[in-house]
Amino acid sequence: MAVKRYDIHNVGYRIYKKIEKFSAVEGKWTGIYFMDWQRKLKQYRNIYRDETAFLIGNGPSVRIEDLERLKGRITFCCNKFYMSYAYHSFRPTYTVSADDKMIEDFGDEIVKNSSGIVWFCSTFPVVQKEKDFYWVFMQSEKMRMEEGALPAGVYHTGATLLAALQIGYYMGIRQFVLYGVDHNFKYESKDLKSSTTEGNHFIENYREGKPWFVPDTLRIEYSFKKMADILEEQGGYLVNASRKTRLPYIKLAAFEDYLLEQE
User: Fold this and answer.
1) CB 4 within 8 A of CB 123
2) How far apart are CA 193 and CA 60, in angstroms?
């Protein structure tokens, strides 16, 4: 199974984008979408209106005892979080991947092993053996957050958890709490594009020796800030309750405080 990396100059992508955009605009006004993945989204619109969700990263600061305390809450985890299942009884509501290389290398495993519902976000539809997942188009337009806009696709931000946030927003969520987002990447890279370095996750051997794309940290930081600003303007919030973090701009919060707020 091959997944093409995000490329706005790819001719196939540009054609697909025009068709997808036309369908999204038509669906917004008539409720009729041409694409199957857009039609499947409708059942999730505003199902958690005004609730709070936890966006859980896989950084080294994650504590198993914290995960246990998240049971029963709306949670979005990412990528190969299932590798930690043997160490706790917490299971996420959703697992999201917006990483082309991750989907290419481990997409089948993610769908097969993850509890809850799996979402993939990429520039081209994902074709693989395991098909029990939802797919969302990844677009290149200027970022904005609008009611019911997910059928137009998620915005390319460089971070899977921000794709998860956009999915949660479509579900009606306006309060988001980050956890396990260390944003402290350590790696060796000869070309500054890819690396095989391990140790950036609380899960050992996370990439199993396979290369991964070096993150665009400035883009990620800008995207987090932009989404936090939009949510605040709309009466919501995005706070960072990670035990350790180097993510700038986002308001820091105590993990325990937001657990109590939901009890």
Assistant:
1) yes
2) 22
* DSSP conformational letter for 40: H
Read off φ and ψ for residue 128, nearest 5 degrees: -155, 175
Alpha carbon 48 to its chain's center: 17
Contact 75, 93 (CB under 8 A): yes
Rounded CA-CA distance 129/86 in Å is 25
d(CA 15, CA 26): 17
Mention every residue, 6+ apart, whose C-beta is less than 8 A from residue 241: 177, 178, 179, 252, 253, 254, 255, 257, 258
What's the pLDDT tens digit per position in 50-73?
Answer: 899 999 999 999 999 999 999 999
Exposure string for 234-256, b = 16+ CB within 10 A, e = fewer? eebbbbbbbeebebeebeebebe
Q: Give the CA-trace dihedral at 23, 42, 119, 158, to 10 degrees.
A: 50
Whether pTM exceeds 0.85: yes
Query: Tens of pLDDT along 110-141?
Result: 999 999 999 999 988 899 999 999 999 988 77
DSSP assignment letter at 86 = G
CA–CA separation, 59 and 73 (whole Å)? 20
Strands 74-78 and 154-155 come out as unpaired
Cα four-point dihedral sign 219, 127, 115, 93: positive
Q: Given a cut of 50, is residue 225 above it in pLDDT?
A: yes
Give the tokens for residue 236.
């919501």
Reported for 64-68, long-range contacts at CB under 8 A and 24+ positions apart, including other chains, are: 64/88, 66/179, 66/243, 66/255
